[in-house]
């Protein structure tokens, strides 16, 4: 996929000038995969041209940044545990574990290959991990995934915590000079570039000449204008529910005129699995702004190193990267820097295309009219009593059913989603099953998989796509509390120089609601939930309706993401590992 830089100055997605054609004779039949017409839509027409200055940063040659190529201080078992805890389902193939380690610990990108043996040995010998063998009924071959044994989760957490503390202790030694420098910066400077939200575990930062002043919050700022956030430990292993937002301000005056340019690559911690992008590149608009400011930078590799953004000190870059800057906080910073500039309109042709996944017109009246095609939102889809009953049922789930990730926890019902098929287990609790039947009424294919996610206030999920295993329709019932589900332009996960991805809007998912997402919103965009304590409902929310201007505090939210895996391998016998 060719990546396209979208200038942050772009004024939203005004598609009224769209001139692309949808070939009505194309394969838009009623089969489940008959969405080929989508590829006929010239989406580039929707986007602004790449400016020549920016274009030259699209393909930087590789840059070696010494500071993060040191061997991590941690054990293989900790790195493996981190990979598994950061995966969407808590289960990964060994190749995905390698990928995660390479992404998070760049030392391994060029290390002698023996480290992979060490990972494998660790997986087989370390009692913290278990193998889940999967027999493919179609071709008879076996493959396997690894997960953390449910009885070892506490032990693994303790080991990770020990690691975090060790790194935190190292950090204590060398921050004074930076803090002094940071406290002298003036947050009211007219040279302010942008403001963005970080999570509190971060420490004040200095990026090779660009310093960020961390302050506790806007309101606290006024009473305590030069407060410095106490040195904190990296957020990588921290629980996120105690977060409160911190703003940071970059001052233009502190951006050096000859930017020391570094290359950075950022991978999402939450979504490393075969079916999801493993190493999408995310660049913050703040960062791109500074890049754009210096288009004539002699060094063509004009990308800011996120590792340096986290911590300019090589010592701290070792091992604990990149989640030290919490995934979603960077996303939040991108959003805050680039407020959505509507309105968003979509060509009528796209709005009336056939919906192969949806049954008849049942959902038509629920279509969110100013969202991209196609999204349907039904408020109060379930009653209060049903919500309570579902919450009770989910809370009754045995503890080991929950996979605890860094920024949320989840339960998979329905089996293991492999690369292409579902190794089905009929383990749906009765109310979840009823709900699935009810939602299936709107679909041409019945739902066969339920993912239950629990988010505490301040937790979220990284921008991602749901991968090819599922049919292209997501249905989500929200209970307990609302959230805002954000949508972003897609990007090329394999392209290190991939451009800034841009938020295109969001959906308010109120408790008891059902949202159905298909077509381009499902296929061409990423979705995610920012780690926030509250949401402000502005015009970027497609279904804001009468709630514009509301500020809604988040509470514990449970989402039931109900989907259909096209191919199923039935039979519990195909699963090993005692997960049934
Ligand atoms: O919780 C939600 O609404 C979104 C969950 C999601 O996108 C996922 O698990 O893939
Ligand atoms: Fe998703």
UniProtKB/TrEMBL annotation:
Q: Which GO terms describe its molecular function?
A: dioxygenase activity; DNA-binding transcription factor activity; metal ion binding; sequence-specific DNA binding
Q: Which Pfam families match?
A: Forkhead
Q: Where is the composition biased (Low complexity)?
A: 213-232
Q: What is its main location?
A: nucleus
Xref: SMART domains = FH
Give the protein's cofactors.
Fe(2+)
UniProt-annotated stretches for the region Disordered: 164-237
State its location(s).
Answer: Nucleus
User: GO terms for CC?
Assistant: nucleus
Keyword list (alphabetical) reads: Dioxygenase, DNA-binding, Iron, Metal-binding, Nucleus, Oxidoreductase
Ranges of the DNA-binding region feature = 71-167
Q: Where do Acidic residues bias regions lie?
A: 168-183
Q: Does the keyword ATP-binding apply?
A: no
Keyword Oxidoreductase present in the record's keywords: the answer is yes
Family as reported in the entry's similarity comment: Belongs to the alkB family.
**What's the name of the protein?**
Uncharacterized protein
Q: Which organism is it from?
A: Pristionchus pacificus (Parasitic nematode worm)
